[in-house]
Amino acid sequence: MRIFAFPLRYNPPLFRLYSLHFPVSDSLRILGIDPGLNHTGYGVIDAAASSFELVAAGCIHVPRGDLCQRLAFIHEELSRIIKQTHPSCAAAEIIFLNINPKTTLLLGQARGAAIACAAVHGLHVHEFTPSEIKQSVVGTGAALKSQIQHMVMRLLGLQEVPQSDAADALACAITCANSMKLKALHESAMPASRTGVRSLSSRAHRRGAWEQFAKQRKQQS
């Protein structure tokens, strides 16, 4: 297994707070997971208001053997990575039915082992569809894998294109960060209602959140 190590700082799990709110002024450490029975990619980033920083990324190469042993290997390796990097939450891709049902079932079992590992360590796991991840990172839901790899490299300021599975995991983590930032902007742009409950569905509120986001980016530049 190949690991890219970077200077780390301790950040204890705070998923009970960050799973609902992500103040755009704070930094959040996110673990992205791209599960697979043969190769499971992972990527850990620190997400701030206007930047991303790579902490660690790589691919877990699962040895051949009985299914239970392979799932246990995924769980153990992810557990080790979580203990090393101390993420605050995790993110994973939602899988859809493949042409081959058996392949989909095996992928789902690998995904379950990875999500269970994150949950055991107290991490809330955010889930995103493949099109949501592509849209967030590249700007189109029909993006190719090579486009995702190059955009991840640019967003994280890397010197070389990351390995495919690691890039997918990092893209998932970046999507999670973008989703949290947008939600925080939505909430900050909403006036409180008489009942104290604010809705995310209003078109005016969404427009206000994006206007505030654009204003912040203009001030930073």
Describe the structure.
The protein is of the alpha/beta class and 221 residues long. The chain folds into two domains: 2-187, Ribonuclease H-like superfamily/Ribonuclease H (Nucleotidyltransferase, domain 5, 2-Layer Sandwich); 189-221. The protein has seven helices and six strands, in the order βαβββαβαβαααα. It has helices spanning 15-18, 67-85, 101-120, 130-137, 145-156, 164-188, 203-220, and strands at residues 2-5, 28-34, 39-47, 52-61, 89-93, 125-128. It has a six-stranded mixed β-sheet with strand order 1-4-3-2-5-6. Helix 2 runs parallel beside helix 3 and helix 6 (164-188) crosses helix 7. The protein is globular, with a radius of gyration of 18 Å. The termini are far apart. The model is unreliable at 1-22 (pLDDT under 50).
What would CATH call the class of the largest domain?
Alpha Beta
Biggest sheet descriptor: 6 strands, mixed
Radius of gyration: 18 Å
What's the shape? Answer: globular
Number of helices: 7
Question: Average pLDDT, to the nearest integer?
Answer: 81
What percentage of residues falls in helices of 4 or more residues? 40-55%
How many domains, as an integer? 2
What's the CATH architecture name of the largest domain?
A: 2-Layer Sandwich
Tell me the series of helices and strands, N- to C-terminal.
EHEEEHEHEHHHH
Task: Count every beta strand, where a strand is a DSSP E run of 2 or more residues.
Answer: 6
N- to C-terminal distance: 39 Å
Summarize the structure.
The chain is 48% helix and 18% strand. The chain is built from seven helices and six strands. Helix 4 crosses helix 6.
